[in-house]
Amino acid sequence: MKNKYLYIETFGCQMNVHDSEQMAVLLADIGYKLVENSQKADLILINTCSIREKAEQKAFSELGRLMKLKEKNPNLIIGFAGCLAQHLGVKVHSRVKNVDLVFGTHNIHRLPEMITDIQKERKKITRIDFSSKIYSLNIFVPPSEGSLCAFVSIMQGCDNYCAYCVVPYLRGPEMSRTPGDILDEIQKLSRCGVKEVTLLGQNVNSYGKNLKHGSNFVSLIKKISDIDGIDRIRFTTSHPKDLSDELIDCFSRVPKLCEHIHLPVQSGSNSILKLMNRGYSTEEYLRKIDRLRSSCPKISITSDIIVGFPGETQKDYQETIDMMEKIRFDSVFSFKYSERKGTAAQKLQGKVTETEKRQRLKELQALQDRHTQEKNTELEESVQELLVEGRSKNSEQDMMGRTRSWKIVNFKGGPELIGKLVNVEITRGYLHSLRGKMIDR
Ligand code: 5AD
Ligand code: SF4
């Protein structure tokens, strides 16, 4: 049988990257080999993101570029997947002719059947129905050769309905996988050599809400930490309103849980947080940060912030800046508010101009760069444990690893260190990485 080649272009978050890996696993079963070159492909999938308008534009321009390949090869199958596909459904076919397949976030497990149908009779397929069961999350993705870190989805969807966000509409209601399925997967990953797992979900703190037998996130972390071979546990993303004291205590009580939390604050103004429907005040957020730092002084804290949400005045924006000065995050992903169809924020008054949003974002990022640099400089002369992941991008003689606090460190060393936990002394803190010197394994 002739080899068939699959090319996948992925946009957006880690969740999407994981979904694409699952697609590749399913398609390998019907003979497709993943390639890195779209020119050679018999099947192309574009896995899209819809969180901000820019992500949508990128997905469509990539689709347009890849459609040209179809002029040369009419047998090429092109599929449009992910959040934007879920959002637009059949409208994708009217916007771009000759797309064969449009499928949403709950239909990944049906991919082999859909492709086989298209191969048999060249018809267009659209599947964007939601399912009440978790199918896709249980597809096992074997780690790639030599890979030490793996992502494990523990839940799908979101029930929070933050006013700006499309995720609850496009990924459906929150559903958790059973602890049994998750633990089996992590045991398998450990047998394949994985040492670090990152638990994924839109709001991992509320893990277990829909499960019987009282499973919750803290009990899940404790069970994972009993798995031999797993040295490090991480998770993302946490919602401040659901961050319990019990979970905060895990950072000091569960040795395998790494000292890093991504805790999106979104704004430092109480009136904007209310309009955003975030369910906490700035005072409550600050109290959680204090608790995290007193329970685990070394913890690194990262966040997401949106500027220019409707109604955000200069005073509200200044409150976000003041909050950043108080907290001094290790790093922040910051975004200009992007209006999304169907969300509550779309109907709000007081739209902020593009120029104002750009100006606020620029200022905020300059402040955060200053904080990140200061935080990284503070680490100079400290000793950090690294999990060595591979060669450094900067130099042939250097290796690269991540600290427990999620910072990248480059240091002199050889490939025999890959997969090992080593201690390094930090010799220099830069904005995007640290320099270290190995002291022992
Ligand atoms: N506009 C700008 N940023 C957004 N995010 C989510 N929706 C929007 C939007 N409509 C940001 C939030 C979230 C991160 C994943 O993306 O900060 O935490
Ligand atoms: Fe979107 Fe809010 Fe859910 Fe995060 S918690 S996915 S921002 S609705």
The global form is: globular
Total helices: the number is: 13
What small molecules accompany the polymer chains? 5'-deoxyadenosine, iron/sulfur cluster
What proportion of the residues form beta strands (DSSP E)? 15-25%
What is the distance, rounded to the nearest whole angstrom, between the alpha carbons of the first and last residues? 48 Å
Largest sheet: 6 strands, parallel
By DSSP, the count of extended strands is 19
Mean pLDDT: 95
At CATH level 2, the architecture of the largest domain is: 3-Layer(aba) Sandwich
Cα-based radius of gyration, to the nearest Å: 23 Å
CATH class of the largest domain: Alpha Beta
Q: What class do helices, strands and sheet pairing give?
A: alpha/beta
Strand order of the largest sheet: 2-1-3-4-5-6
Give the fraction of residues assigned to helices. Answer: 25-40%
Which regions are unreliable across 5 or more consecutive residues at pLDDT < 50?
Answer: none
At the fourth level of CATH, the homologous superfamily of the largest domain is Methylthiotransferase, N-terminal domain
Overall tally of structural domains:
4
